[in-house]
Design brief:
The protein has helices at residues 18-24, 30-36, 46-49, 56-68, 133-147, 175-194, 281-284, 290-303, 329-345, 376-379, 385-396, 425-434, 456-460, 475-495; strands at residues 76-83, 102-103, 108-116, 119-126, 154-158, 197-207, 212-214, 216-219, 225-227, 242-245, 252-260, 265-272, 286-287, 308-313, 319-321, 348-349, 356-366, 401-411, 414-418, 422-423, 439-443, 452-453. By secondary structure, the chain is an alpha+beta fold. It has one domain. Strands 1, 3, 4, 5, 6, 11, 12, 14 and 16 form a 9-stranded mixed β-sheet that branches. Helix 5 (133-147) runs parallel beside helix 6, helix 8 (290-303) crosses helix 9 (329-345) and helix 12 (425-434) runs parallel beside helix 14 (475-495). The two termini are 28 Å apart. Mean pLDDT is 88; it is low at 1-47 and 50-70. The protein binds zinc ion. The site of zinc ion (ZN) has 3 residues, from loops.
């Protein structure tokens, strides 16, 4: 089921390590070899590719660095952010597909590049509702070509902000903007590579119970799920009794903080599990990074204006903020942002040597059978039947299987598992439970888009996410994606535990 791609595969222009250089039979100067060992400190593409001769100052720092630690133990990180805000007039993501009239706060591609020894990985947090596979592949190919970073080592992680551009399956809508997007994401990865420098890792976590909920409740009338935004839920005639929520939330808000040798905070990697649908987009029709943008702003306010925070969205397929598209969205986002600042301030040093590594598998998963639903399943929601009809027609025309990327990475004790869809929170907790890492985060909507991914119980209980259209990967396929993520985490854990 897996593609033949191997994680050790090197790009043609690979100059990442002395070992690799030796394999390729290239002759390098001593300075270049020091750079290739991952020890150069100067900004510039050279930090990634080792092609530019070092200055004397750089060589001195390199030699001092080498005397303290071997390159395999050394953590280096670089951060960057690039503006990806679409123009005014571009089409916003649904519902309504409005044309944007302005920008509340800019959309960005924020990147963390982490490296130890010859292993270098990029995690890009993008302010997009989702990304198509062809766009992610193009961004990864460009970044790989420019920096030498391995294609399997790049995660393009959508925050899922709802005040972002419409990303159609194809066609003319937003085509000009989307054509530019891969280059902008690759720019961000390249700039983060150029900023690589020695760093220390700190881990912090807050538990957040304010402002989010599992957005599926069980109606006593039929024992099935209703989504909390449906009018029917507030109608005592039609929903006389609700038997609690259909699933949990995941309260973990993670902040991995990276400090320079001099103690300056360089940036953070943030992970939280809740739909970013707070920004008042229906009324304002403006671009906004939603609460992940507020988290990044508050962390920069607390730790320094140049601090970049890369946000990854957890398994939030069935988790919403308590109010959506809210006039007081900034205030409500501030609850999550305060928790992030608190976690970053109380972060503790990562134990042991901080190994960076990555793995990717492209797995083939079966499509959902479009006939697999009850006609009454849409009617009972009493909400947007036309949307379900249109989405179902798209599923009918999909091929019976599709190849989907799954990535995993590690930075020291932190494992990162990805999924390409909108994963139900129970699946995210399942990955955390089965992961061998002391700490694990899940990044959904990464490197592709495969719709909603309910659990077996979620499918049985129906509701918006479980119907054909919003969901188009079968339960079997979802299991394959989750199991693959766990398998990759295990591989990365065992590889460095022997
Ligand atoms: Zn969603």
């Amino acid at each position: 089921m897996e593609s033949a791609r191997t994680e050790m595969e090197m790009p043609k222009n690979c100059v990442q390590s002395p070992a690799c250089a030796a394999r390729h039979g290239n002759a390098f100067s001593r300075r270049q070899v020091l750079r290739l060992a991952g020890l150069a400190v100067a900004p510039g593409v050279a930090a990634c590719r080792g092609l530019v001769a070092a200055t004397d100052d750089e060589t001195r720092v390199v030699e001092q660095t080498r005397s303290k630690k071997s390159p395999s133990q050394e953590l280096w990180v670089g951060f960057s952010q690039v503006d990806i805000t679409p123009p005014v007039g571009a089409m916003m993501t649904g519902p309504g597909l409005a044309r944007a009239v302005g920008t509340d706060d800019p959309l960005r591609a924020r990147t963390l590049v982490a490296r130890s020894g010859d292993r270098m990985m990029a995690i890009v947090g993008v302010d997009l509702v989702k990304i198509r596979r062809d766009l992610a592949d193009a961004a990864i190919a460009q970044a790989s070509q420019r920096t030498g970073i391995n294609r399997d080592a790049v995660m393009i992680c959508c925050s899922h902000n709802h005040s972002s551009p419409f990303v159609p399956m194809g066609g003319p809508n937003n085509a000009d903007y989307l054509a530019k997007l891969p280059r902008l994401i690759a720019d961000s990865i390249e700039q983060a590579c150029q900023a690589l420098q020695p760093a220390r890792m700190f881990l912090g976590r807050a538990l957040v119970f304010d402002g989010l909920h599992n957005r599926r409740v069980i109606s006593k009338t039929d024992g099935l799920a209703l989504n909390t935004w449906l009018r029917k839920v507030s109608d005592l005639e039609r929903t006389p009794q609700v038997l609690g929520t259909a699933g949990p939330i995941d309260p973990e808000l993670w902040v991995a903080r990276f400090d320079a040798r001099d103690g300056r905070v360089l940036g953070t990697l943030v992970n939280f599990t809740c739909h970013p649908s707070l920004h008042d987009r229906i009324r304002l029709k403006t671009w906004s990074a939603d609460y992940p943008g507020v988290i990044a702003d508050q962390l920069a306010k607390a730790f320094g204006k140049d601090v970049v925070s890369v946000f990854t969205q957890g398994a939030s397929g069935d988790v919403n903020p308590n109010t959506q598209f809210d006039a007081n969205w900034r205030e409500k986002a501030g609850v999550f942002a305060s928790a992030a600042v608190h976690a970053a301030q109380n972060a503790v040093p990562a134990k042991g040597s901080v190994v960076v590594d990555y793995a990717r598998s492209d797995v083939v998963v079966p499509r959902r059978d479009p006939a697999d639903w009850r006609p009454e399943a849409v009617a009972r929601l009493d909400w947007r039947p036309d949307m379900f009809e249109a989405a179902k027609r798209q599923v009918v025309h999909m091929p019976p299987t599709r190849e989907v990327p799954v990535n995993a990475g590690r930075i020291g004790p932190l494992g990162i598992a990805t999924n390409a869809g909108e994963l139900f929170v129970d699946w995210g907790l399942d990955i955390k439970r089965r992961s061998p890492f002391p700490h694990t985060i899940v990044s959904e909507l990464t490197n592709d888009w495969v719709g909603y991914e309910p659990t077996a119980q979620g499918f049985r209980q129906e509701g918006y996410e479980a119907l054909v259209g919003p969901n188009f990967v079968s339960l079997k396929g979802i299991r394959i994606l989750v199991d693959t993520a766990v398998e990759l985490l295990r591989k990365l854990w065992e590889k460095h535990s022997r």
